[in-house]
Amino acid sequence: MRTKITALLLSLAALWVFAAWVTLREGVNLLWVQQMDQRISTPGDVLVIKLQEERRLSMILAGQRSPENRQALLDKRAETDAASAEYKRLADSTTVRMAADDTLELRIDSSFSALTDLDQARAWFDSPNSQYVEHASTMYTEAVTAMFRVYDGMATLDDDKFANDTRTLVSINRARELFSQEDALVSGVLANGRFSTETYNDFMQLVGAQQHAYKEVAQNLEESFPEAAARINKNEVREKATNLENMLIDLPNPKKPIRVITLPEWSAASKAWFDDTYDIMRDSGDTLVDDSVPIATGVIIRLILAGGLGFFAVVASVVLSVTTARHLVQQLERLKEAANELADVRLPNVVERLGHGETLDVKTEAPPLEFGDDDIGQVGQAFNAVQETAIRTAVEQAELRRGIRDILLSLARRTQALVHRQLTLLDVMERREIDTEELEDLFKIDHLATRMRRNAENLIILSGATPARGWRRPVPMVDVVRSAVSEVEDYTRVTVMPIDEVHLVGRAVADIAHLLAELIENAVSFSPPYTYAQISGHMVASGYAIEVEDRGLGMSDENLELINQRIADPPEFNLSSSVQLGLYVVGKLAERYGIQVMLKRSPYKGTTAVVIIPRELIEEGESGAPSKPLTVVGASMPESTDSPSRNGELFTVPALVPPPAPAEAPPVNAPSAADDPSQSSTTPSGLPVRVPQASLASQLREEPLEAPVEDDPGRSPEEIRRIVGAFQSGTLRGRAASVESETE
């Protein structure tokens, strides 16, 4: 309501401002025209006349270098310099700069430059053997032309007839300039006594140009200044000057000495014509000034009417509108404040408290407001219903989201428990299986179950909870990286480069391995099947850096920037956000531990994911629980039976477990693949290639690796039973310790 009332008043004020501005602009324009006339036109006219006279005397000196001619020129130069200084002082004043637009300012500056260049022209005229007399004369002409361009850029009154009459008077001055050029040239020729071919051609062109200019001036003066037009057309002084022009034109041989007229005769005729045209221009200017008086008076009257009466009308409208609408606006202010409080304070507070799991009462959080029974009061009652509905909806939506999150978390926990039991069963089956093909299939199923566990943990992370897996002691970083590789489908396409010997604190092992697995999965999924992904790690100033580099097609700069923003500041998870869930999980895990994750272009046109783990999560040197070298499961899997149980643990083969309690007798493990020279070959990604029966006990081999020693009678059944019992006892203790570390 206040906006509408304000808009109404503003529209009325705008009409007044427009009317006042139109008349004010005319008044300001009148003031500027007066200032321009006083500071540019008046001193400029004097300067133009002095320049024309100096040009004429300069040409006379160039034609006849006598002391009298030189002294006359020096006296005229002093007058020109005084007129130039006065013009520059007035034209460069603050008032002129305020009144002039950009174009006029440039033209005024150009006139200053042209006047400065006259020093060079004067030097050429002073030189007895100067070959630049014609060029020096042209520089005077350029200075006068620059003054005329200043006149053209000056503002006039906002009256079409007045502006047209002003241009007509300027055209008289231009015609006088053409005759002045002719006068200077003829005076120099008569002082010299003869024409040259070039000066004669210039003389003929100037005669034609000035006669055409005066003809057009007379035609333009017919409408506004008929008396001035008659004085130009029928003028005895002009006829005398024209007769002398014709005598020079009719010379049989212009290069011979001129005898038909003398310099004093020409000077008298030209000066008389100049003075007469100046009187015509001055009288016409006086007439123009008289015509401008009614125009200026009308401008002042309109300014008083539009400014004064319009202002009082606007003030009266404002007072009436404010008085009428004050009570209405006050009620609307109360309603607006209540709405702002609901939107900015109460509703966000309710949402925040609901996010923390508080139980709220809608009636308590949305008390009704009293606005009366009038029209505004009815609007207030409707607002009360709106705020109650808004808070009730927020409560219901929060309960719905909490229920969905609890469902996801419950399903994920159940799936995690089932996968844990499945991994436990697979571990038992792998340890008792001796058939190589069956064992290989069990390892494949084991790998699938490990990936299923990662997917279940994704749901747990999306639900805002944390997976249950954890370790008490630090774990070597190389084992964390290899554990992440083991949870990727195409693990054979992943190459683990040398990694610094550091340890990761136990509480962050499972989550960081999960984070790396998501990045590795993304790297191999979006790369051609014949390429490999590389993982490297090293200490940096801010922590420990792990780089996951692929050789795929890469991403655009826009996508990289968008994904990095989402990882650095993961948005609230939305059930409709089904794309890039892995990157969302990465962002949540990175936020949990203060890890910096950034995607960038790799040198191979692919993408490199850089993970910076903070120093507080890193322990350098030998520390933590010992671990065995990792062998990733797959089609080429050694049939090792010496790895501990993997039930719900970090690594697939072998898992990291706390050291088992000492057994009654140390367990004897079967020969490992590392002891067999035939195990030296590796896959392209650096993984060992399985050699059948390389890890079996010598008694189970179809063919012994080496010929039996005849002197070795072998172990007795009692010794074998004691060794197997000790091995089984140590394995059970290790599994129990592993389960205990996970629950912690």
Concise description?
The protein is mainly alpha-helical and 744 residues long. It contains 19 helices and eight strands.
Supply the key terms:
single chain; 744 residues; mainly alpha; five-stranded mixed beta sheet; three-stranded antiparallel beta sheet; 19 helices; 8 strands; elongated
Kindly describe this structure.
The chain has about 750 residues and is mainly alpha-helical. Helices cover about 65% and strands about 5% of the residues. The chain is built from 19 helices and 8 strands. The strands form 2 sheets. The protein has a 5-stranded mixed beta sheet with strand order 2-4-5-7-6.
Low-confidence residue ranges = 623-668, 670-680, 696-712
Topology, number of strands = 8
Radius of gyration from the CA trace? 52 Å
Q: What count of helical segments does DSSP give?
A: 19
Terminal CA distance: 64 Å
Describe the strand arrangement of the main beta sheet, using strand numbers.
Answer: 2-4-5-7-6
Determine the mean pLDDT: 75
- Net shape: elongated
Major beta sheet summary: 5 strands, mixed
